[in-house]
Design a protein that fits this description.
single chain; mainly alpha; Fumarate Reductase Cytochrome B subunit; disordered N terminus
Length: 215
């Protein structure tokens, strides 16, 4: 008699969370590495990847409000204090295992979403004055023209070159902050994977983890 091995893993991450996670990774890597052209303007690849990041962040934020299970923000509404306490327990080797996001993971999710949103927003502001828009994007061209006219009007009153430079510097700073958060996130995932004897990166591919009742 053949015994069928039952899959005792729990389904945790839905496709929107998983695909959005890895698409965001790819888009950020492309955006960060494409940077500026020799002329100093943003490259088309950088602009398109920035738009992709903005769209993914928007979808994830919406899904955090209307999604189900562990995708909802209400499922991991932990504050910074809880996140620091979890990290301390993790370093001491007795952190509680969470089937969804841990408190530290939750804080990182919110920090990354805010940082990415700020990076995209400042990127749009910095690029609006340059007139460089993705080819064939008529709607984007209309919006860009409106932003450009507003930017020109602002420049005529306040000396906009300095403001544009400041926005560009803020955009670069936020991009570097996001990169730093990503590095901390990777290190945290690795540490938690070792502590809980579970491949958390793999679970974001398969969507499955050990059940909550298994330590």
């Amino acid at each position: 008699m053949t015994m069928v091995k039952q899959d005792k893993s729990a389904y945790v991450w839905d496709p929107i969370v998983r695909f959005g996670h890895w698409a965001l990774v790819a888009a950020f890597v492309i955006a960060y590495l494409s940077g500026e052209e020799e002329s100093g303007d943003a490259s088309q690849l950088h602009i398109w990847s920035g738009y992709a990041i903005g769209a993914i962040v928007a979808v994830r934020a919406l899904w955090g409000l209307i999604g189900a299970g562990h995708a909802r923000f209400s499922d991991f509404a932990y504050g910074p204090v809880a996140g620091l306490r979890y990290l301390g327990d993790l370093l001491l080797g007795h952190a509680r295992r969470y089937i969804g996001h841990s408190p530290a993971g939750a804080v990182m999710v919110f920090a990354l979403l805010l940082s990415l949103a700020g990076t995209v927003g400042t990127g749009l502001m910095a690029n609006s004055g340059g007139g460089k828009q993705p080819a064939g994007n008529a709607g984007g061209a209309v919006i860009a023209r409106a932003l450009e006219e507003e930017n020109e009007h602002r420049e005529s009153r306040t000396g906009g070159e300095g403001a544009e430079s400041a926005i560009g510097e803020l955009h670069a700073a936020l991009a570097n902050i996001t990169l730093g958060l990503i590095i901390l996130h990777v290190l945290g995932v690795g540490l938690a994977s070792v502590a809980h004897r579970e491949n958390l990166a793999l679970s974001m591919i398969t969507g499955r983890k050990r059940p909550a009742n298994e330590s």
